[in-house]
Design brief:
Blueprint: H1 6-11, H2 14-22, H3 28-35, H4 43-59, H5 75-82, H6 90-112, H7 118-123, H8 132-140, H9 153-182, E1 186-194, E2 197-203, E3 212-217, E4 223-228, H10 229-260, H11 264-290, E5 296-297, E6 303-308, H12 311-320, E7 327-331, E8 337-341, H13 348-362, E9 375-376, E10 381-385, H14 398-412, E11 417-421, H15 430-446, E12 450-454, H16 458-466, E13 470-477, E14 484-490, H17 498-504, H18 509-518, H19 521-602, H20 605-625, H21 628-662, E15 679-682, E16 688-695, E17 698-702, E18 707-711, E19 715-717
Parallel strand pairs: 5-9, 8-12, 8-13, 10-11, 11-12
Antiparallel strand pairs: 1-2, 2-4, 3-4, 6-7, 13-14, 15-16, 15-19, 16-17, 17-18
Helix pairs in contact: 2-3, 3-11, 4-11, 6-8, 6-11, 8-10, 9-10, 15-16, 19-20, 19-21
Length: about 725
């Protein structure tokens, strides 16, 4: 990477992130490697690392779990393998064998699942698979760390002889034990162990009677420990054999060390690979904790962070069960520099640090907590001027210190630079400092650099308004409580709320007014206008939200009415069809009634049948015109409507019944004598007809299209 001073890493607290990642590594060497994580030198290496970490993170959630990568430090063996005739310790051999098996298992697994883990597979593609190392070591050393009997023919013979001798020693000792026990030369404890040898516990008074080597005595001197003579001879022989065994083992381990010596390079590559895997694992676990992911890498110079969290703040707040506010920041060629203004303690510095730290993490191969649709790019250099420069050491030279910083900025800035400056231009006379800050910012602008600055200077806010690729932004504040909302609003400058905050904190109103008069009227007006605009914006956002809600409500209502309208239309059509059908049935009924009347008069069957057949044929001719499907549909409609109508009739009858029972009987109507020719209607009907004839309390009423017979008491005069 181009220019990345250590100061940038310190300013943005990058080392706190690496400390947190270190906790997740599972080996001491992996932990050391995590401590040394820094931004990578080029994009190609970076992409490999980021994709590898992203794949490892995905492995936590799927069934193809990556095998364990734990290992013991192999470094002590490296030095010995360089020295001729040196011999490794047994533990070193076992650690090398285990590491070799671990690497081979990982490589085999990643080869099998390379479609899932292409980048992880690629990382180990240069590491050689070697099964001989483990095989050779296992032939010599067993899983308990003991040298196998068959490690060499000589060792096998020696150990056989040793076993035989040990048997003879036990036999001869037991013989002596029972012999002297019978003679009552032994103490109650009978025997003991001295220097790993079984010895007789002889009473002191009988010690001269027992042949053998004296090995010591008890504290009181009442017991003397003697190794029997026969056993003594076998023990000397055993010592010689054990010495020969040790020499043979040295020889075997020396040969095994010679076998490993030419493989030193491979063993080193195994350790490097496992350390690398451990750092990838630690970064993946850290990403799991902070919700880190790999955003989209853009082909252009642009930074579009959505829902970006400051990882350190996020973790601290998570432990304290507090809410962390995410930020949205967008830098692109048409809006390269963002000037953030507004009151202190509103989160301006946090926004700056979030952008810087996330960029550093990303360029160090660490996944970042942002929305997956965020877009990022590569910066050759990241320059910062953040942090408390008011420390005791440089208290007197804060301004000159910052100017030196600006000097190095001006030397390094180009179109692949991201600069982050907190409280730009402070530390000097406001008028002069502001002017100097303005020309420095113009220089950064002309060099096409990308950056974020925070400031209270009005002239810098104005500059951002004038330049097309520079934009003002402010941290939103609640204008009533003056509490920060921690939301960055692009496109407008922020008021410092200086006087409002002073007033809130109890500074007398008279003093605030005097202060306002002291400054240029224009400056106060400018600040007041900005403050007013922010309040207006807040109101408009609220109004917009409320209008949106109302619009949604009206849309839903309109939809409901439309559906209701459709239902009513369809019902109306169905009723019309039923009415037409019933009218046809009435006409048909009348025709049949006429035929019956004629037959009643003349009693002639043939003309009756002929007429009926003609009537049926005429009806069937109409039916043929309708398709089968139409007929089906009609039947369905009739059924539905009839059901509907019958349901309504049932309800009407119920209502009438209720009324009859609850309401008092109406006074009897005055009797009207009906006669032929009167205009009448049925008591519960609306259609008006005239009486054609009256017979036995029944009237034939003519309705024009049809006639019908009705009881006289069901009719009333139509007015």
């Amino acid at each position: 990477m181009g220019h990345l001073p250590k100061k940038t890493l310190e300013d943005l607290e990058f080392f706190r992130v690496t400390d947190q990642i270190t906790d997740f590594a599972i080996t001491p060497m992996g932990k050391s490697a995590c401590q040394t994580l820094v931004p990578l030198p080029d994009q190609e290496t970076l992409f490999k690392e980021l994709h590898a970490v992203s794949e490892y993170l995905a492995s936590f959630a799927n069934d193809n779990r990556i095998p364990n990568h734990g290992f013991e430090d192999l470094s002590p063996a490296f030095q010995l393998l360089k020295i001729e005739n040196s011999v490794l310790e047994i533990t070193a051999f076992r650690n090398i064998a285990t590491a070799s098996l671990t690497v081979n298992t990982l490589l085999k697994f990643l080869y099998k699942f390379k479609t899932y883990y292409p980048s992880l597979y690629q990382l180990g593609s240069q590491v050689e698979v070697n099964k001989e190392i483990k095989k050779e070591i296992d032939n010599v050393i067993d899983r308990f760390g003991e040298i196998r009997d068959n490690a060499s023919d000589s060792l096998y013979i020696l150990r056989k002889q040793i076993q035989g001798l040990k048997g003879k020693i036990a036999q001869s000792f037991n013989k002596a034990l029972s012999h002297y026990q019978n003679l009552d030369y032994l103490d109650d404890i009978r025997e003991s162990v001295v220097e790993n040898k079984r010895v007789l516990a002889v009473k002191a008074m009988h010690r001269r009677k027992v042949k053998g080597g004296i090995m010591g005595s008890s504290k009181t001197g009442s017991i003397v420990f003697i190794e029997p003579e026969a056993t003594l001879n076998f023990s000397r022989e055993l010592q010689n054999l054990v010495f020969e065994e040790m020499e043979e083992i040295k020889k075997i381990l020396s040969q095994l060390t010679d076998f490993l010596r030419p493989l030193l390079g491979l063993i080193k590559s195994y350790q490097r690979y496992l350390i690398h895997i451990d750092t990838i694992f630690a970064r993946a676990r850290y990403a799991q904790v902070i919700n880190g992911l790999l955003p989209i890498f853009s082909d252009h110079q642009e930074l579009e962070l959505k829902n970006a969290y400051h990882p350190l703040l996020y973790r601290t707040h998570k432990l304290e069960d507090k809410k962390t506010f995410p930020q949205d920041i967008h830098l692109h060629p048409k809006s390269r520099i963002v000037v953030i203004s507004g009151p202190n303690a509103g989160g301006k510095s946090i926004t700056l640090k979030t952008v810087g730290l996330l960029q550093l993490m990303l360029q160090s191969g660490i996944l970042i907590p942002v929305h997956e649709k965020s877009r990022v790019c590569w910066f050759d250099s990241i320059l910062t001027d953040i942090g408390d420069n008011q420390s005791i050491e440089n208290h007197l030279s804060t301004y000159s210190y910052r100017l030196k910083n600006m000097k190095s900025f001006l030397r390094k800035c180009d179109d692949k630079t991201l600069f982050l400056i907190d409280e730009f231009g402070t530390g000097s006379d406001p008028e002069l400092g502001g002017a100097l800050a303005e020309v420095i910012l113009e220089d950064f602008y002309e060099r096409k650099s990308f950056g974020l600055i925070t400031t209270h200077y009005a002239n810098l806010k104005l500059l951002a308004d004038e330049q097309p690729a520079m934009v003002n932004a402010n941290m939103q504040f609640d204008d009533k409580t003056l509490e920060p909302v921690f939301k960055l609003i692009l496109g407008e400058a922020g008021s410092s709320f200086t006087f409002e905050v002073a007033q809130k904190n109890g500074i007398p109103f008279s003093l605030i007014n005097r202060a306002k008069k002291k400054i240029e009227r224009g400056k106060v007006r400018f600040d007041a206008t900005i403050a007013r605009m922010q309040k207006e914006r807040h109101k408009m956002a609220k109004t917009g939200k409320s209008l949106k809600e109302k619009e949604n409500k009206f849309e839903n209502e309109s939809e409901r009415l439309e559906k209701l309208n459709e239902k009513l239309k369809s019902k109306l059509v169905n009723y019309q069809e039923l009415f037409d059908h019933n009218q046809r049935m009435i006409v048909l009924g009348n025709k049949l009634n006429d035929l019956a009347e004629r037959f009643f008069q003349n009693n002639k069957k043939r003309p009756l049948i002929a007429e009926i057949l003609r009537l049926v044929e005429s009806e069937n001719a109409k039916r043929k015109r309708k398709t089968l499907a139409q007929a089906k549909k009609d039947r369905k409609v009739k059924k539905e409507v009839a059901k509907d109508v019958s349901q309504k009739l049932v309800n009407i009858r119920k209502e009438k019944k209720k009324k009859k029972t609850t309401s008092p009987l109406p006074p009897p109507k005055a009797l009207v004598v009906l006669k032929v020719g009167d205009k009448v209607r049925m008591l519960d009907g609306k259609s008006v007809g005239s009486i054609d004839s009256i017979e036995k309390q029944k009237a034939i009423v003519n309705y024009g299209l049809f006639t019908t017979q009705v009881s006289l008491d069901q009719l009333e005069i139509a007015n």
